[in-house]
Amino acid sequence: MKVIKSLLIVSSAILLISCFGFTDNKINKKKQNTKANFKPNKNTKVAYFASGCFWCVETIFESVSGVEEAVSGYAGGHTKKPTYQTIGTGKTGHSETVAVYYNPKKVSFETLVTVFFGSHNPTTINGQHPDYGTQYRSIAFYEIASEKKIIESAIAKLNKEVYSGKIATEVTKLIKFYKAEAYHQNFERRNPSQGYVKAVSVPRLNRFKKRFPELLKTDEH
Predict the structure, then answer these.
(1) Is 2-215 a CATH 3.40.640.10 domain?
(2) What is the pTM of this model?
């Protein structure tokens, strides 16, 4: 009985600091922002990255100067209309992905790739602590050949200078991006007291800010 009780305690602790398992009934719905009002202009470009829980990734990219908006969603899988619950099974092939809308006159795709690799551990296979599973794997998506070249060049450089050839990031052509449910958008900003946000998201964002202060917006709120 003691063993079973201990396992239940450990399991509960893991769920408290896990990105998965939350529903729209368990989080703050006030001022829920679906980002439906965001209208990219003709000069706006979009880049797509997956590096663990999209609550964290979205907030990191939104802190970068030149980024107009970041939208949480799903990509890289083989099923249509994935949902938060279905990708959690690990059977859809999708990864929690963020669409980064940016002004190329203010920030380059190459810089966004630097942000991507500089804000997570790209050597971790199928996950970013404390979230593990194929839905949390590291993927740098590309739409055109020049983007693929930039990503592959960054990987080659980091493998040689930092990670000793251990980078596990997938380089994948984007086929389809599905926007996540409304309650995931701006999750960290709307739920500052939520357990995972306090224990994982905020520390991850702060580590990024400390490492790349020159890339941050000066009018953050």
Answers:
(1) no
(2) 0.88
